[in-house]
Write a structure and sequence with these properties.
- The protein is of the alpha+beta class.
- Helix content is about 20%, strand content about 35%.
- It has eleven helices and 39 strands.
- α1 crosses α2 and α3 crosses α11.
- The radius of gyration is 26 Å and the shape is globular.
């Protein structure tokens, strides 16, 4: 898309035109009878002998005047239908109250300092605070709200130095996520002159003497072939006070440009561990002895498994799914890491070992059982020391600690419990509440949370969380919002989303299906929903909807679905495969053209998950379900709200735009069941979206859902 300013001007100009066209003599506006007409420019391609025609390829050029004009027309049509809907003011008011609950992050330790983020009230962005000691006073260290009047500059990530003297952090504008790295001195709050561009999702490992750090960075335009600047993530070393463009290249030269390296240092500052992700099914570990000056040496086997590691006191602790789909832990000497020398210390169990960190001389392990979190503490030989009790069935959403500290922090939340931060004392083996979010106006006891199981098309048992008011009557008419994801080894576990209470307060049922393709039951569950098995994900979602209807929670006229990104692809598949099953669909930042997705933004990184139409065999299964290529003429589809953003650097807006044009042209939908497009300016894939924009977006979403499902404002 073009710049936010240009888009705004185009929208404003077109809105004046639309108002003039639709206004009567009395100055009152009327609703347009149908969507704008989109010019058809057929383009034929041959995929391995199959001819495919794309009528709207021209919309892929987001910077062209024609596309910008089309976007403005679509936005005016969307506004003409959504703005007059009843109850919008009440929805906006309640969403403002709910989003004022804010959020909180888990403290990260650096020496005597604790660093954490918190957003309060209607602040657009979370603020980074520092607290000296456990009970000291909080002090603002980085406030991104001061960096842009409209709140569109976000704090992407941060990493304190080992002893807390400095902190590196990244900021980006308009949801782009392409961070600029900055350094702040903790004691004074002063910024150092060091600034490094192109540090998206940077991985940072500080030297123990605070003189510099290892980090990941992307190339600038001109250093690599056009388009490759989104890839080629390499590891560099930066010494404070020097020119970043002269930083020493440590790792990445000559490797696959789609490799994704991350870095960590051992507690002695001698061993640099480089973890290289290659898609979502394979990682490799490289170890570099900084004292000896040896080059990075691979310590894993080169097999298609996932590995993560920590180096501590000369030993490498490795968590892997190698021949163990639910993961286990090994240990080996840093100087002798042949595979035959690995020793298993934490075997595979019934739960999924999601993460393990070495803090305070102990192994802090996070497990997942039936899509809910568990915490365990082991000694360094793998002996279980303690199971930590959690407040309820829910999710541990982060943790923090250090090798030389006897405290561990972790965050907990659930569908009905706002995020809280707990501190575990390794000496006394006691847990205390460190901080929590207050949620005024929400009574958790008023809502029930259930986990039910259903059968998918092939007989696979799939779990689903259901949240609703206590005493719900299963009469087949409850407004129900079903969501899912099903991909990239991601688990959908119980989480606190304050916006959802607007839905629950109006008698709605909120359902979360744990589809194949996720991580809820280990790597086997993930593999069963990727590549040529992607249809399993769609079958699981269809079966979830059918279960909700058969169990009388709702019916097809009161069932809506929502999903974003890979979940947006899921929404597209639901719309095209079972259009009669849903009344309304909210499709956020979606992938929809699966024959071309890999050519836009960073999507080539996802080929290991989806495949590519460039391969003859992979083309067959992609073409079979690609939503953009499965739209049929004369079909009545659910009402659909496609949502995207002009600065999305992950999923290109062209997916939502082309799908909107195609469905508006072919669908047998009335004005009461519209196909709408909503494009947010100065926003991206979701991360860093200011609260002010979240409120406006939520008002549109819930107004749309209330309208389509017949939900009345209280």
């Amino acid at each position: 898309m073009g710049g936010g300013g240009r888009l705004f001007c185009a929208l404003a100009l077109l809105l004046l035109i639309v108002v003039a066209v639709y206004a009567g003599d009395d100055g009152q506006t009327s609703t347009p009878s149908g969507p704008p007409k989109t010019e058809v420019r057929p383009l034929e391609e041959n995929f391995h002998g199959t001819k495919v025609v794309d009528k709207y390829r021209w919309l892929e050029d987001g910077n062209s005047p024609e596309t910008r004009k089309w976007v403005a027309e679509e936005m005016s049509y969307t506004r003409a239908l959504l703005d007059p809907l009843p109850g919008r003011d009440a929805i906006h008011k309640r969403l403002t109250e709910l989003l004022s609950i804010g959020n909180i992050g888990v403290p990260q330790i650096g020496g005597k300092y604790h660093f954490y983020t918190r957003r309060q009230g209607l602040q657009n962005q979370p603020v980074l605070y520092v607290r000296e000691g456990v009970d000291g006073k909080d002090r603002v260290l980085v406030d991104p709200n001061q960096l842009a009047a409209d709140g569109t500059v976000a704090l992407d990530w941060f990493e304190p130095a080992m002893h807390g003297k400095y902190l590196a952090y990244g900021t980006s504008a308009s949801g782009s996520e392409m961070s600029t790295l900055h350094i702040v001195e903790t004691k004074t709050g002063n910024l150092l002159p060091d600034s490094i561009e192109r540090t998206r999702a940077a991985s940072i490992a500080w030297s123990l003497d605070n003189s510099g750090f290892y980090y990941t960075r992307y190339p600038k335009k001109g250093d690599v072939p056009e388009g490759q600047e989104r890839y080629n993530r390499h590891v560099f070393y930066h010494e404070l006070g020097t020119d970043p463009e002269k930083d020493e290249l440590i790792f990445g030269e000559g490797r696959d440009p789609e490799d994704w390296p991350s870095v960590s240092l051992d507690n002695d500052g001698r061993m640099l561990l480089i973890t290289v992700s290659q898609g979502w099914t394979k990682t490799e570990l490289f170890l570099m002895d900084l004292k000896k000056g040896t080059p990075p040496t691979r310590i894993t086997t080169g097999k298609n498994f996932l590995y993560s590691g920590t180096v501590y006191n000369g030993r490498v602790y490795i968590v892997t799914n190698e021949d163990a789909p639910r993961f286990r832990m090994f240990v080996t000497e840093a100087a002798d890491y042949e595979r035959d020398d690995w020793k298993e210390i934490v075997p595979q169990t019934g739960g999924i070992l999601k993460d393990a960190a070495l803090w305070g001389g102990k192994i802090f392990a996070q497990y997942e059982q039936n899509a809910s979190s568990q915490l365990k503490v082991f000694d360094l030989e793998g002996k279980n020391v303690r199971d930590l009790a959690l407040p309820a069935i829910g999710t541990v959403f982060g943790s923090g600690g250090k090798w030389d500290h006897d405290e561990i922090f972790y965050g907990f939340e659930s569908f009905t419990a706002a995020p809280s931060i707990y501190r575990y004392d390794l000496k006394s083996m006691s847990t205390s509440l460190w901080a929590k979010l207050d949620a005024p106006g929400i009574d958790p006891a008023a809502y029930a949370v259930e986990q039910e199981w259903y059968r998918s098309k092939d007989g696979t048992r799939v779990p689903m969380f259901l949240v609703h008011k206590q005493g719900l009557k299963k009469d087949g008419s409850n407004p129900t919002l079903l969501t899912g994801y099903g991909g990239f080894d991601v688990s959908l576990t119980p989480s606190f989303d304050s916006e959802n209470y607007l839905w629950l307060e109006h008698g709605g049922v909120y359902a979360v299906a744990n589809l194949r393709g996720g991580a809820e039951f280990g790597e086997d569950w993930h593999l069963a929903g990727m590549l040529d098995k992607k249809q399993n994900v769609f079958d699981d979602m269809i079966a979830a909807a059918e279960y909700l209807i058969s169990e009388k929670y709702t019916d097809k006229d009161h069932l809506a679905i929502e999903g974003g990104s890979n979940g947006g692809l899921l929404m597209g598949a639901m719309v095209t495969q079972r259009p009669e099953l849903f009344r309304a669909v909210v499709c956020r930042v979606p992938l929809l053209d699966m024959l071309h997705y890999q050519n836009f933004q960073i999507a080539r990184l996802w080929v290991p998950e989806y495949g590519s139409a460039e391969d003859p065999e992979q083309f067959k299964w992609l073409y079979a379900y690609s939503p953009y290529h499965r739209v049929k003429a004369g079909v009545e589809y659910p009402a659909v709200l496609f949502m995207t953003a002009d600065s999305d650097s992950r999923v290109d807006p062209m997916h939502a735009e082309k799908m909107t044009a195609l469905m508006q042209a072919l669908a047998k939908n009335s004005r009461a069941r519209p196909i709408l497009l909503r494009i947010e300016s100065k926003a991206g894939h979701g991360a860093g979206t200011p609260v002010s924009k979240q409120i406006e977006e939520g008002t549109d979403v819930f107004s749309f859902l209330f309208w389509q499902l017949g939900v009345k404002e209280n």
